[in-house]
Every structure is written in structure tokens, then in C-alpha cells.
From TrEMBL:
This is Leucine-rich repeat-containing N-terminal plant-type domain-containing protein. The keyword Transmembrane applies. It is found in: Membrane. The lineage of its organism: Eukaryota, Viridiplantae, Streptophyta, Embryophyta, Tracheophyta. The keyword Glycoprotein applies. It comes from Eucalyptus grandis (Flooded gum).
Amino acid sequence: MKKEALWVFVVVWGVACFCGSHGCQEQERVALLVLNTTLDLTYSEYTGGSYFNCCSWRYVECNPATGRVTKLMLSHLRYYRFGSKTWYLNASLLLPFEELKSLDLSSNSIGGWIAPKEPNLLSSKLSKLEVLDLSDNSLDNSILSVLSTIPSLRRLLLISNNLSGTLHLHGDFSNLKELDISYNAIDVAATAKGIKNLSHLENLHLDGVHLKHAGTVVRALGALSSLRILSLQSNTIEGSITTQDFHNFSKLGTAHLG
């Protein structure tokens, strides 16, 4: 009986993998067609010749067993055609991807997200999204209120955008483990206080910023109890940083300064 049960399991698993690898969810395929049109990709650029199997399309990765999209690699696509001309992404286009774990939309001249009118849609539909790369776009501080509705985020990259002043990351950002807000015109001292509640944050990048009152900033970041890696490279630094400033870091293993 055990051998028969094992054989049935192998057959069922094989059929699932076979079906999943030869197709994809229709709603996800349609959403990808619309999204790719928004990014101004030609048919051959994203399908690779296979219209029905979106799991075989360029920039797309799927779970081979279920056929659900798990990763979208859409960086540097719209920028090549339109340069720095900004546009707004309708976040509703992402709602069908309920198994999505990683999304890369870097370097696409995105000026902002148009969030769904229903406030809980992003959190319910994108409940498995862990990695989001929005680097090298034109996003301002308003993007934070949209992203704060996605509590599953673990890694958030907002390098080289139009973030400025004080950033407040509260509420549903509490599960973040990695945050990179380098090369933005932010008030680092005030932002350090605004992110002190990110108790799970392990990796923080603040490169390429104007670092005033450096010692005070480092001491404020000591409130991040899980921090293991801190990068403050390529900064304009005012004030001194001493070993005593790192006194409150209980888990810090690596600090990049300069």
C-alpha cells in the first residue's frame, strides 16, 4: 500500500508540474498583456513566441507546479523608449498576481502609483510579495503611504528616487528586513527617528546622502534592535562618528562608512 500511495503521489505531482509548466492562469496572462502594453513592450519582446504560456515569457517566473506567477523582472523597459518622462503605474494591474513574491520595476521613470480605491486590496491580493525594487524612478514620499498597505514586504529598494525631508515608515512596514533609501535628498537625522520602530530591520543602506550630525544619527539608529548591517558610504558627513556611538547596537556585525 505504501508503494502504491507513493506512486500515486509521484503521478499527481508530475501531472501538476506538467500542467503548470505548459500554461498559466488566464487572469494573470491577461494582466501581463495589459502591463506589458503599459511598459510599451512589443509582442515578441515579452512572449518569446508563446502567446498562451505566460510562464515562458521573458521577465516572468512561475511556480512550476501551479503555474502562478511568482516573480516579475521588469526593470529598464519603459526608460529605453521614453527616457526620463514620468508616468503613473495603476497598481490595480498587479492585483491578479496573488502568488507574486518578487517584483522589480526599477529604472522605468515611474512618478507614482495609482492605488486601488479599496484600501485593503493591495494587502489581500499581494499578501506574498516580499521583494520590491523601485530604484531609479521618480517617486516622492507619497509612495510610502501606498506601500505601507503591503505588510508582507521584507526587502524594499527605493534607491535614487525623489524622496526628501523626513521619511516615516510605520505600521505595516514593521516586517521589513532590508531597506535601501540611498541617494535621496532625505533628512537622515529625522528619518532615523522615523524608522526606529522597524524592529525586524537587519540591513539598512543610507549611502550617498548628506549626513548632518553624524554621531547623533548613528546613536538614533541604535534603536533598531535587529540591525546587523549598516551602510553609510559615499556620504557628505558633518560631525564625527566614534566607536561609542555604536554602543547601543546589540547585533551589528558590519558597518560601512565613508
